[in-house]
Design a protein that fits this description.
Elements lengths: L1 H6 L1 E2 L10 E2 H11 L3 H16 L3 H17 L5 H6 L7 H31 L10 E2 L29 H7 L4 H14 L7 H6 L15 E4 L6 E4 L6 H19 L13 H15 L2 H6 L10 H15 L2 H16 L8 H13 L1 E2 L15 H4 L5 H20 L21 H12 L6 H9 L7 H20 L18
Parallel strand pairs: 3-6
Antiparallel strand pairs: 1-2, 4-5
Helix pairs in contact: 6-20, 8-10, 10-11, 11-17, 13-20, 14-15, 14-17, 17-18, 17-20, 18-19
The structure holds Sampatrilat-Asp (D0W) and zinc ion.
Length: 494
């Protein structure tokens, strides 16, 4: 399944004889830039056929084999095996409670984006009250909507902040992005990338062979060999990804003295949150001005709403997507979702939680879940849902330690916090990372944040001004909040 995913190619919409389009960078770039619903529909349908439907039989077999492996490890099924990593009895209930906390904010954002897409594409393409067609959101899986920011942001007359353009104008290279990320970590008194990292990593797509381009960070468990493999393109998204992968490497470095059994994240979500937490500082207007990627004056109210919107269509919209991916697979591993129901149950969950619908009718000849890397590559995904919650708890704690955030002080807001060069913040982070998986994760969480649980309060505090603005704006335009059932057929009648 993984090699099928890595080598899948599709034909161009504009030129039916050009059939060598790979996901990275070709389809990804086309999907990010195209504003033609017909071209987007073509790319969506063709990718889901090549990488999704084609993996259905292998996936069905993999479920059987992986459940057998789970039983041999004394688990009931793979769902229980995956959840054991979080060491709490009520993990699924905690995920559900976190979703209840964030859902009102998501529904406001969803309603606003649906209106802006309807303004652009018309109400024959985007309905007033239904789900949003998944192919119009700038990302093959509609997991982050950052690529539609340019024509949906709240205050369009405010200066466009196009980091990608600035990076390309300033002749950024993949190496420069890695060196900047390394320098940020060093500014926090964290560990520099070792010599072998620079020698052994692959940071650009090779021209002489096919590799799995999906970015990855590797610990060779010898205390000195740590590597990243990614097909870097010079754009803002890969600037974020570079920090994400470097976050994994920094965690590897911080716990490299632990016994091997403890060289892991406190839980899988912790490992995913390190790099993204640093990236929250890097993506702040203050930091982007510091490194010269954004010019011009400080924030005013409207610019701040635009900035929070840009962060929200990346971070808030990701949560229901991540939640869906593993709720679907828990049902599959438990046998509640049979192969003949795979696609129907997948889309029922995506419509119910994310409020999106496929661009065309689906049948059980399709298998859209596998068109997402982690499903084809057997990688658990709840780790990212956890990460997108706890990274705001980490960010708030680090910002307070850096003197960058003071509750109730409007001159020290969370959205404009940049912990760059704060040794106090870096030392606290290092102390938590050094634990690895040697302590239960509530101990690690408490060491850094003073809290012993995953809570949405950090995220909700960060986005509160946006939530208030969205409620007022949706009220002003009389937007329907939530979505009515989709008219697209994706469950062939039972
Ligand atoms: C040996 C091994 O497997 N190592 C693990 C790390 C470890 O376990 O030590 C590893 O390298 N996993 C690869 C995976 C890659 C990426 C990913 O898949 N991201 C998710 C979700 C997401 C999206 C936006 C975002 O800002 C953060 C996350 C997606 O793209 O859907 C691609 C882009 C970013 C991270 C990763 O780094 O997590
Ligand atoms: Zn990761």
């Amino acid at each position: 399944m993984e090699s099928n995913y890595a080598t899948s190619k599709i034909c161009s919409f504009k030129n039916a004889t050009k059939c060598d389009l790979a996901l990275e960078p070709d389809i990804t770039e086309l999907f990010a830039k195209s504003q033609d619903p017909e071209e987007l529909r073509h790319l969506w349908v063709e990718w889901h056929r090549a990488a999704g439907a084609r993996a259905r039989d292998n996936f069905t077999q993999y479920v059987q084999l992986d459940n057998e492996a789970a039983k041999l490890n004394d688990f009931k099924d793979v769902a229980e095996w995956w959840q054991a990593e979080y060491e709490v009895a009520d993990f699924e209930a905690q995920l559900a409670r976190l979703w209840e906390d964030v859902k009102p904010l998501y529904q406001q954002l969803h309603a606003y984006v649906r209106r802006r897409l309807r303004d652009k594409y018309g109400d024959q393409v985007v309905s007033q009250k239904g789900p949003i067609p998944a192919h119009l959101l700038g990302n093959m899986w509609a997991q982050t909507w950052n690529n539609i920011e340019s024509f949906t942001r709240p205050y369009p007359d405010k200066k466009e902040v196009d980091i990608t353009q600035a990076m390309q104008e300033q002749n950024y290279t993949a190496l420069k992005m890695f060196q900047m990320s390394d320098e940020f970590f060093r500014s926090l008194n964290l560990t520099a990338m070792p010599e072998k990292f620079w020698k052994n990593s692959i940071i650009e797509k090779p021209t002489d062979r096919e590799i799995v381009c999906h970015a990855s960070a590797w610990d060779f468990y010898d205390g000195e060999d740590f590597r990243i493999k990614q097909c870097t393109t010079i754009d803002y998204e890969y600037f974020q990804t570079t920090h994400h992968e470097m976050g994994h490497i920094q965690y590897f470095l911080q716990y490299r003295h632990q016994p091997v059994i403890f060289r892991d994240g406190a839980n899988p979500g912790f490992h995913e949150a390190v790099g993204d937490t640093i990236a929250l500082s890097v993506s702040s207007p203050k930091h982007l001005r510091r490194v010269g990627l954004v010019s011009g004056d400080a924030e005013d109210e409207q610019t701040e709403i635009n900035q929070l919107y840009k962060m929200g269509i990346d971070k808030i919209v990701f949560l229901p997507f991540a939640y869906t991916l593993d709720l679907f697979r828990y049902g599959v591993f438990r046998g509640e979702t049979r192969p003949e129901d795979y696609n129907c149950h997948y889309w029922q969950l995506r419509e119910a939680l994310q409020g999106v619908e496929p661009p065309v009718n689906r049948t059980e000849e399709d298998f859209d879940a596998a068109a997402k890397y982690h499903v084809s590559a057997d990688v658990e995904y709840a780790r990212y849902y956890v990460s997108f919650i706890i990274q705001f708890q980490f960010h708030r704690a680090l910002c307070q330690l850096a003197g960058e955030y003071v509750p109730e002080d409007l001159t020290k807001k969370l959205v404009d916090c940049d912990i760059y060069q704060s040794v106090a913040a870096g030392n606290a982070l290092a102390n938590m990372l050094k634990m690895g998986s040697s302590r239960p994760w509530p101990d690690a969480m408490e060491a850094l944040t003073g809290q012993r649980a995953m809570r949405a309060d950090g995220l909700l505090e960060y986005f509160r001004p946006l939530h208030d603005w969205l409620r007022a704006e949706n009220q002003r335009t009389g937007e329907h909040i939530g979505w009515e059932p989709s008219k697209i057929q994706y469950c062939t009648s039972e």
